[in-house]
Amino acid sequence: MKARDIARQYGIDGSLFERWLASSNHNYTQGAFGGLVVPDESVESVIADFNAQYEAEMNRLSAQQAKDEAAAKEKQQALAGILITSGYSFDGYTITRYSGYISGDDVVQVDRGTVGWFSKGTNVGATLMESLSVIRRNALTELKEAAYALGCNAVIGVDFDYLNLEPETANSQGGTTYLPYVFGVTANGNAVIIEKNN
């Protein structure tokens, strides 16, 4: 019986079943017009084996997904608990380890727009102000990720550096093409481990 027909009869994905069959220890032959063919007397045992392995794989994936979700939740809680200050200490805490300088970055592009009869130039200032808090927050999130990767629970001496680019390039007509403005921000600090004082 053709593997595709078996898959259809038992409500199984045909290509998945054929891939599994090709890598299994079950006997099969190549069909005259392509595809795999299973001896009729083996169909029941092949299906039973496939279902058992498929269920085991689904259970493994489900367990892995649960484990990944738990790890992601634990990481999210740890990131939310990381303290950040522009100063160099926290009231009620003692710094027990310094792990070094870290940074987090983000960038945004702002279209220059065009000015003409039927077009309006981009309000770069307003667009930048809308984006600035977002890219600063993203830079701080990346800073926390860097601290977490070092096993730290706080960042001290945090400050921001800003980057402003006005890129342009030559075009095929020999003129200049003005590319979107680029605004970047870097959050810098020192990753530390702090412990609450008794």
Low-confidence stretches: none
Give the overall average pLDDT. Answer: 88
What is the count of distinct domains?
A: 2
The spatial strand order of the largest sheet comes to 3-5-8-4
Number of helices: 4
DSSP, total strands = 8
**Oligomeric organization of the protein chains:** single chain
Structure description:
It is a single chain. 41% of the residues lie in helices and 29% in strands. The chain is α+β, with helices and mostly antiparallel strands and 198 residues long. A four-stranded mixed β-sheet has the order 3-5-8-4. Strands 1-2 form a two-stranded antiparallel sheet. A two-stranded antiparallel ribbon has the order 6-7.
Summarize the structure.
This protein is of the alpha+beta class. The protein has helices at 3-10, 14-23, 43-80, 124-149; strands spanning 29-30, 36-37, 83-84, 93-110, 154-165, 168-170, 176-178, 181-196. It folds into 2 domains: 3-73, Multidrug-efflux Transporter Regulator, Chain: A, Domain 2 (Orthogonal Bundle); 81-196, Translation Initiation Factor IF3.
SSE blueprint:
Blueprint: H1 3-10, H2 14-23, E1 29-30, E2 36-37, H3 43-80, E3 83-84, E4 93-110, H4 124-149, E5 154-165, E6 168-170, E7 176-178, E8 181-196
Parallel strand pairs: 3-5
Antiparallel strand pairs: 1-2, 4-8, 5-8, 6-7
Helix pairs in contact: 1-2
